[in-house]
Amino acid sequence: MDLSGYAEFEAKYPGTKVFVDNLAKNVTKSRPNIPQYPKISQVLGTAVQSVLLGQAEPRAALDQARGEVDQALAGS
Q1: Residue ranges per domain, the chain?
Q2: Considering just the CA atoms, what is the radius of gyration of the chain in Å?
Q3: For the chain: N or C, fewer Cβ within 10 A?
Q4: Contact by Cβ (8 Å): 33, 41
Q5: Is the pTM of this model over 0.90?
Q6: How far is it, in rounded angstroms, from Cα 71 to Cα 75?
């Protein structure tokens, strides 16, 4: 694995190390094996993007995503 540039990335985003270390220890599957996963992934991605673009506050984005995910899991 080529890690060139990782030191600069980690310096810019210091929380990354905790996330990457957690992946190595706790993640055995990258995606749930359920039919609703593509919709859930899209909903969460949209929520994160709206926060990163300054179009929504984190709590509001997560609240909206939660409602959409609940609907997807309920089959509506």
Answers
A1: 6-74
A2: 16
A3: N
A4: no
A5: no
A6: 6
- One DSSP character per residue, 4-22 reads TTHHHHHHHSTTHHHHHHH
Least Cα distance to 65 among 50, 44, 45 occurs for 44
CA–CA distance, 39 with 65 (Å, rounded to integer): 11
Q: What are the structure tokens assigned to 5, written together?
A: 């540039």
d(CA 35, CA 22) in angstroms, rounded, equals 26
pLDDT tens digits for range 9-56: 888 888 887 887 888 888 777 778 899 999 999 999 999 999 999 999
Reported as a pLDDT band with limits 50, 70 and 90, residue 76 is: low
Determine the length of the chain: 76
